Amino acid sequence: MIDATSEPLPRLPVRRADTHKGDYGRGLIVGGSLGMAGAPALAAMACLRSGSGLVAVAAPRCVQPTVAAFHPAWTTHALADDGEGVSELAVETLLTHTEGATAVAIGPGLGRGAGAASAVGCVWSQPLPVVIDADGLNALASLGPRLAKPLGPRVLTPHAGEFARLAGRPLADQHDDAERRDAAAKLARSFGPSCVVLLKGARTVVTDGDRFAVNTTGNPGMATGGVGDVLTGIITGLLCQGLDAFDATRLGAHVHGLAGDLAAAKLGQTSLIATDLIDELPAAFCLLSAG
């Protein structure tokens, strides 16, 4: 594999003066369930803060009002539910919403069950970039060999436990950089040439099976609920602006960690929470632009 770590970070295109919100993509976040409405909201805010022109959240009807109330800058779509989470009846509606999206993220707060698996299978089959995280990865693991090869780029963002379910085996040593790199690359290749795996950890690995990069930004204060949802939103926002899957994931991991480092410098690591990263995303992107 080619080590891309020493190569310059990808850059977002310079914005022209005569552009409008449609030029920067339409992000769709699919997630949420009873008690987990905050997860897709965090991803949606991070997607907006990472430059996507428009963001919508497709959530089960039982939590749609809660998701909508978090912020006025995104729209929401109601999905059929079973009173707690998305139901299998939601697939047809979900298909109509993916048709207008530039990139989709699925998984934050989605919950488990047949409805979640149907939603992931539906999104997986679409010919557009898709980021899969959290409960979306658990659903993906349950679908296993029933999945066809993807028709568009796919980004999987597992932690060690989710990786074990996807790969069918745990990491031999989750602290060994070479083991993490090789295992992540093997997983990426198993899903096809358009798949990128971001294996979370103290030194996050990003690989498409042929190239890899190891991220060095971030700190232990980021080990708190919702931080992964923010990462999902960042990567989705970068995909919306035209970066390819490997570049969007590599840059997303860097910006995510950098925002965490900026937040920790102000607040310390102990009190860091996910929304602090979102608050620091503007400064993180400004630092990248100035570099």
Protein model, in words:
The chain is α/β, with parallel strands linked by helices. The chain is built from ten helices and ten strands. It has helices at 38-49, 64-69, 91-98, 114-124, 135-143, 160-167, 177-190, 227-240, 245-267, 274-290, and strands at residues 2-3, 26-30, 54-60, 75-79, 103-106, 130-132, 154-156, 195-199, 205-207, 211-214. It has a ten-stranded mixed beta sheet, with helices on both faces. The protein is globular.
Give the arrangement of secondary structure elements.
Layout: E1 2-3, E2 26-30, H1 38-49, E3 54-60, H2 64-69, E4 75-79, H3 91-98, E5 103-106, H4 114-124, E6 130-132, H5 135-143, E7 154-156, H6 160-167, H7 177-190, E8 195-199, E9 205-207, E10 211-214, H8 227-240, H9 245-267, H10 274-290
Parallel strand pairs: 1-10, 2-3, 2-5, 3-4, 5-6, 6-7, 7-8
Antiparallel strand pairs: 8-9, 9-10
Name some characteristics of this structure.
42% helix; 291 residues; alpha/beta; 14% strand; globular; 10-stranded mixed beta sheet; 10 strands; single chain
Order of helices and strands: EEHEHEHEHEHEHHEEEHHH
Across the major sheet, the strand order is: 1-10-9-8-7-6-5-2-3-4
Helical fraction equals 40-55%
Estimate the mean pLDDT confidence: 95
Q: Give a count of the beta strands, DSSP E runs of length 2 or more.
A: 10
Indicate the low-confidence ranges by residue numbers: none
- Strand-residue proportion: 5-15%
Rg of Cα set: 17 Å
- Helix count equals 10
Query: What is the SS-derived class?
Result: alpha/beta
Alpha-carbon distance between the termini?
28 Å
Quaternary state, please? single chain
Outline, from the CA principal axes?
globular
